[in-house]
Request: fold
Amino acid sequence: MNKNLRIALYVVLLAGAVVFGLLFRNGFYRTTEEAANSSTNQSATTVGEPSKRAGSGEVGQMMTYGVLGLLSLLMLGILVARDVSHLVAHRVDKFIFDEDAEGERNPEYDDAEKVWPMGNTSKRSN
Reply:
């Protein structure tokens, strides 16, 4: 994935999570405020009279903002997890397959490898 595209996705998803979270919060406060005002300012209701409550359209809109905010956070989490796992995998790969450094050599082993084809296995290098 292109670096500029990843940065753009981070910005868009973070902004979406913040905006949808704030819209959800405002809708929540608005619906709870209306419910509190309608319950405290009601006169005695008769049996056949329905009570006033927050409109279902406002609650539905609030829940839509909440779901969109959660989806933004979920996608942001997946993107962060992908980038972190790629970073760790790259570092481990670089550590294991280090091609820049010269391999460690044991001089005693190299001497033994030179002596072995001659058939003189009793000679040891110290």
Remarks:
- The CA atoms of residues 29 and 35 lie 10 Å apart.
- The chain is about 70% helix and 0% strand.
- Residues 44-52 have pLDDT under 50 and may be disordered.
- Residues 3-42+54-118 form one domain.
